[in-house]
Amino acid sequence: MQSYLLISRFFFFVFMTFSCGPGDGTAEKKPVQAEPQVRLARLVKPSYPVEVTIGENAGFAVEVPDSIRVDSLQVFLGGTHRQTLEQGLDGSVSTGGELPGRASLRLRVFYGDGKSENISQQIILLSDIDPVEYTYRVVNEYPHNEDAYTQGLEYEEGWIYEGTGNKGSSTLRRVELETGKVARIHRLEDEFFGEGITLFGSRIYQLTYRSQVGFIYDKETFEELQKVYYQNREGWGLANNGKELIMSDGTHVIYFLDPDLFTINRQIEVYDNEGRADSLNELEYIEGKIWANRYYTDEIVIIDPATGKVEGRIDLKGILKAVDRKPTTDVLNGIAWD
Fold first, then answer.
1. In CA terms, which of 10, 54, 173, 284 is 20 to 30 Å from 44?
2. Among the residues of 168-260, which ranges form H helices?
């Protein structure tokens, strides 16, 4: 498959036991089933997950039988108590200060007899930012091995570090930029499909696709230092912010990992003002922002790592000339930063 690469001043691109006995449920030690709970309240708005732009109000409305007296209604958004209504069963709640993605709108109804019940619905919070639209200009082109299925890309001191994929041909390699000549190569075992890489101090980290295994190498010798395991079902892109590893898994979620334990510290959902940014692939961390290829598109999105909001979008359509396309040509992938 053919990979392609853009280079400019800034880019190189989830008990019970039984005994015999009488059938009265006592000697058999069978659990006694509780009476099914009858819900009094019904959430009529929203009745399904709705999209709300951050900063706007999310409306709600609750219905209870006329014979039931309600004392108050507490409103929670994303686990935080936002307001209490002493009168009325409808209103709205501000989404200001929330992060993009899925959030639970929960309403707790307090009745006159001292009892209460919870009803909830998920809402989808969209970014309140209009992404800046960028185009591109090709400054230079360099040779690249068409058989190298690029999954991860880094640039340091004149060298391209590249992680390639496909079972049986996955590698980590150091490549001379101007000539495309491979100066050093490490071949993964045939069972692994290599994925994203990142340079972190004197080490190189490399993910694999569905094996839930990663590798840590010595940056100079490519000697394998450690094998690590992660929870994500798939490994796609990898970058770092100098303190944490930053990982994608082909969804709209980005994970921040401890570089020693490989455990997840936190995660963000990536959204723009129209919806979620799916298929996040190869990553690069550039001047405090996350840059991400979107698989099967010619688009790079620029992401705020604190919020997950898409701040910019680069349209790279046409970067590979029609005359250079072949039946084996795959997708735009690989971002490196000079």
1. 54
2. none
Burial of 163 (C-beta count, 10 Å sphere; 0-12/13-18/19+) = buried
As a whole number, mean pLDDT of residues 240-252 equals 97
317 exposed, middle or buried (CB, 10 Å; 0-12, 13-18, 19+)?
exposed
Angle (nearest 5°) at CA 257 between 256 and 262: 160
Is the same domain home to 309 and 184?
A: yes
CB 108 within 8 A of CB 118: yes
Residue 229's SS3 state is: strand
d(CA 286, CA 153) in angstroms, rounded, equals 13
The SS3 of residue 249 is coil
Q: How many domains does the chain have?
A: 2
Three-class secondary structure of residue 323 per DSSP: helix
What confidence category does residue 33 fall into, taking pLDDT thresholds of 50, 70 and 90? low
Residues 46 and 117: their CA atoms lie apart, in Å, by 17
Note whether residue 16 is domain-resident: no
**Is the domain of 107 the same as that of 162?**
no
Q: pLDDT of 148-195, one tens digit each?
A: 999 999 999 999 999 999 999 999 999 999 999 999 999 999 999 999
Q: What is the separation of C-alpha 17 from the centre of its chain, rounded to a whole number of angstroms?
A: 42
The first and second tokens of residue 204, run together, are: 């190189």
Report the 10 Å Cβ neighbour count for 332: 25
Mark 189-211 as b/e (b = at least 16 C-beta within 10 Å): eeebbbbbbbbbeeebbbbbbeb
Q: What is the pLDDT of residues 248-272, one digit of tens each?
A: 999 999 999 999 999 999 999 999 9
User: Is there a single domain that holds both residue 327 and residue 200?
Assistant: yes
Structural domain range at position 99: 42-126
Parallel/antiparallel/unpaired status of strands 280-286 and 264-269 = unpaired
What would the pLDDT profile of 6-27 be if each residue is shown by its tens digit?
A: 434 344 443 223 333 344 444 4
**248 shares a domain with 122:** no
Kindly list the distances between the CA atom of residue 60 and the CA atoms of 66, 75, 143, 272, in Å, as whole numbers in the listed order.
19, 9, 58, 24
The answer to the question of residue 14 being in a domain is no
